[in-house]
Amino acid sequence: MSLEQAREWLQAAGSVVALTGAGISAESGIPTFRGDGGLWQNYRAEDLATPQAFARDPRLVWEWYNWRREIIAQAKPNPGHAALVRLEIAKPRFTLVTQNVDGLHDLAGSGRVLKLHGDIWRMRCTQCGSNWPDRRVPLPKLPPHCACGGLARPGVVWFGEALPEGMMQEAEHAVREAEVFLVVGTSAVVYPAASLIPLARQSGARVVEINVEATPYSEIAHCSLQGPAGEILPQLIP
Ligand code: APR
């Protein structure tokens, strides 16, 4: 299927869901996790973004997040993020589900963002459980601590941890009602986020994938558009 066909589907749709991954932020200068050239290549997210790694060496894990925060702090939303804001404004029912923790959808102006994997700009206390925003770059002291004296952790979801309460259910509900499901810049290998793609297909939505390379779900997409999200999304959503 062509881009023109996908644009027509989008124009006619009343309810749309978009699932985004690191690829939508790549053109903003934020490296992806698994794509080639990603700076994280020498850091396997699976080795650092885990409760075990944090328990073993909180300082090392915070050095990685502090470094990521410094890179992300210099990043600006790109035309791909802006296109999704236009879509949110144009559609009576629109849900943006992101795996990204960089906050660029918020900066771009997206109003309702389901952050399945949390937010790198928030912290959570491992003692008292309180949760607060902290955008300081770099952080003055690693690892940071809570006012209660407890060790603070990044406000993100690590491998093996539960997603924010009720968020997957909200995303699944929106996907079941979607007429078009955009899946943008994700390798679709991390669950449960990736399960939204077959769910969209089973629920009768038109599945449109935007990625620079094929993914395990390219075959089930009704339309798989190969190219950078920052170029394709503005053509889809002029
Ligand atoms: N436009 C569109 N897609 C792109 C672009 C681009 N400019 N650049 C890269 N991509 C694609 C890559 O081809 C790849 O399929 O983006 C995808 C990035 O995949 P990952 O690096 O695996 O990122 P993501 O899918 O978001 O990872 C999911 O894994 O490490 C965890 O919690 C982390 O949220 C993350 C999750």
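^ adenosine-5-diphosphoribose complex. The chain has two domains: 3-30+77-117+165-236, 39-74+124-156. The CA atoms of residues 57 and 202 lie 43 Å apart.
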